[in-house]
Structure formats: C-alpha cells, structure tokens
Specification:
about 60% helix
Amino acid sequence: MSGGGTVVAQLAERGAAAAGQADAADRQLAARHLLDALGCLAVGVTHPVSARLRALRAVDGGGGSTRSPGLPACSVADAVSHEAVAMHVDEFDALHVPAAVAPACVVVPTALVLADQLDASGAQLLDA
C-alpha cells in the first residue's frame, strides 16, 4: 500500500492489486464463496428476521433505487445491511480459516449491491 490517501483508498488499491495477481485457484475459491453466500441469501430472505426488516422498511417509507431480494426499493446502505443479515441469519457461514473471518458478512453483500448499481460483469464481481 502506498503511504498516502485515506484508509479506504489504500484498501481499494490493495484489493485491486490482489485481484490482478489472483490465479485460477484464487478465482475459483472466490467464486465458491460467492455461490455459498448467494445460497445463504436465498435461504435467509425467507427467514422471520428478514420479514421483520421488510416490515421496518415499510414503516420508514423505504425509498431509493437499489434492489435487494425481499426488500422494496431501498438505499445502497439498507440493501447491504439486509443482505448481510439475510446471508448469516441461519449461520451457514463460509469461514475463511486462515483469516478467521466470514468474508460473506461484509464483502459479498457490498460487492453484490455495487455490482448491481454499476452493471458490473461477473468477472468484475469476482474481482471485488
């Protein structure tokens, strides 16, 4: 990472460099994490917690133009939050053991929503 810029800019720079260096095995692993997260999302949007989130969105009026499964049009932040909750509500998390994190918790919902907003390709989604 370079010494200048914001932390977010530095992380974006580091992420772009990593995506550029990813080999076929890395991309296959990223695709598996993405597919796992999408499976969890498909199950999670039917969970009672997701129904509660939909009810809360209806109460506050919704708004925005971002799509999220099971939610009316909403803001980017609301879509990411809803998808993160829905992907993990039943604890089907794909743990990345070396890092001791569940990447789908933050990375996948954010990448999905932004890919939709930017009309990104599948390859761009995997890079993200």
